[in-house]
Amino acid sequence: MSAIPLIEISGADARERGRSYGEQARAQIDIAVDFYAQSFTRTTGLTWDQVLDRVPAWTPLIEDYLPGIMDEIEGIAEGSGHSVRAILALNGRGELSRPDVFAAMGGEFADTAATTDKQVEGCSSFAILPEANPFGHVFAGQNWDWRHGIADTVLVMRIVQPDKPTIICQVEAGQVGRHGANSAGLALNANGIGGTFGKGLGVPGPFVRRKVLESWTMYDALGAAFRVRQGFNTNLLMSHRDDFAIDIETTSGRHNWMYPTDGMIVHANHFQAGIPPQINDTYKPFAVDSLYRVPKIEAGLRRARSAQTIEEFRAAVRATMSDHFARPNSVCCHPDPRDHELDRYSTVISSLVDLTSGEYLLTHGVPCENPYQMLPWNVYDGPSEPADGLVAAGVPAGATEECS
Questions:
Q1: Could you tell me which of 257, 157, 167 has the C-alpha nearest to residue 216?
Q2: Residue 345, pLDDT score
Q3: pLDDT at 384
Q4: For residue 230, what pLDDT is reported?
Q5: For residue 299, what are the contacts with CB-CB under 8 A and spacing of at least 6?
Q6: Cα 244 to chain center, whole Å?
Q7: pLDDT tens track for 325-357
Q8: Which of 246, 303, 367, 401 is the most buried (most CB within 10 A)?
Q9: Strands of the sheet with 244-250, listed across from one edge
Q10: Could you tell me the pLDDT band of residue 99, with boundaries at 50, 70 and 90?
């Protein structure tokens, strides 16, 4: 088994951090750009350059939501040798598969665009609180299921920035954020939920996830999810080492949320907290396998409660996330030969983060074939609170908070 690529970026200058990222991940970014150039040509019927012509429409939204992050994007472009537009496209790859988002950018798909029901990120996520495991720890993790063709682009990145928590996250090369944990004790796992509707143009998901992971507190993490204009429905599962987890089904309309049951949350790719009224009469899960992955994982994690040692527990979690019921479209996802080559999915990483000890484990590829590797970084090798001990208020202009 090969080791997953690890990179670290640090420093006060966002452009320099980005340049370091681009230089270290140049080979993986090359693969990612080549894959998505082919994928978007297929799904939109347009050339890669025609797709890239539209992505600058995101820039003001992104900069307003997460000031300074465009400097990092520009650095990634410089370090990798690709254009800023190409790096933006890698970060908005989910949104760019949506005709309504593309229309909001001033363009439209060609008549030759291919149709596929596999345009939204998969994944099966979970959180396990102290009452649901024999060690009294908080765990978070997931199977990250995405296009098999990008498997060689995934890497783990450690981000060290002044006045912000240190972040460890799993990303596709060129992206600024996806799934991970930070030194303030917060973990984020995420998965697509489909059910498209809404206002079109919004902040692409990786920027929302980066802002969540830059949060010192759950208050600010929730603010990052609720105070954003987005054009893409996605599920965000946030866990905290202080015995708390919440799952938020975010949409371009209202959000729904749910809390652990018996100390556990499992979420996959269908609406579980509530179907948005905009699609209530027409909604069907985009990934029907989601309907059996959730109960399969819940049953497996319940069995893991009988583990006598942490090693047995990890083995039980890995066995759960390696479940092959209805393979290849199983919890442990394998490419389906019936799909077009560019549309085939697989589990590219399976992760298990111990938010109590700070140990971060993951597999490079499907968990049925690859054991957990422990990262050389501990989640808590970084600040747990701002240097001055104060956390910036997260109340937007015009809002008020009351107490009585």
A1: 167
A2: 95
A3: 92
A4: 86
A5: none
A6: 19
A7: 999 999 999 999 999 999 999 999 999 999 999
A8: 367
A9: 6-10, 154-160, 167-172, 179-182, 186-192, 234-240, 244-250, 256-258
A10: confident
Q: Please tell me the distance from the alpha carbon of residue 161 to that of residue 20, in angstroms, as a whole number.
A: 13
Contact 177, 213 (CB under 8 A): yes
Q: What would the DSSP string read from start to end of 239-303?
A: EETTTEEEEEEE-SS--EEE--BTTEEEE-SS--S---GGGTTT---S-TTHHHHHHHHHHHHHH
Q: What's the pLDDT score for residue 122? A: 76
Find the distance separating the first CA and the last CA of the chain, reported in whole Å: 58
Distance CA(28)–CA(36), nearest Å, equals 12
Average pLDDT for 179-192: 97
The helix (H) or strand (E) run that includes residue 160 is strand 154-160
Instruction: Report the C-alpha gap between 220 and 182 in whole angstroms.
Output: 13
* pLDDT tens string 53-78: 999 999 999 999 999 999 999 999 99
Residue 181 to residues 17, 106, 188: CA-CA distances in angstroms?
19, 36, 6
Q: Are 203 and 230 in contact (CB under 8 A)?
A: yes
In residues, how long is the chain? Answer: 404
Per-residue pLDDT at 2: 66
**Model confidence at 402: pLDDT above 50:** no
Q: Which of 58, 118, 119 is closest to 89 using CA atoms?
A: 58
Spatial contact of 335 and 148, defined as CB atoms under 8 Å apart: yes
Measured at the alpha carbon of residue 124, what is the angle toward residues 300 and 260, in degrees to the nearest 5? 70
User: CB–CB of 128/122 below 8 Å?
Assistant: no
Which SS3 state, helix, strand or coil, does residue 369 take? coil
What is the pTM assigned to this prediction?
A: 0.94
Name the band, by pLDDT with cuts 50, 70 and 90, for residue 109: confident
**Closest alpha carbon to 82 in 43, 42, 52:** 52
The Cα 236–Cα 188 span in angstroms is: 7
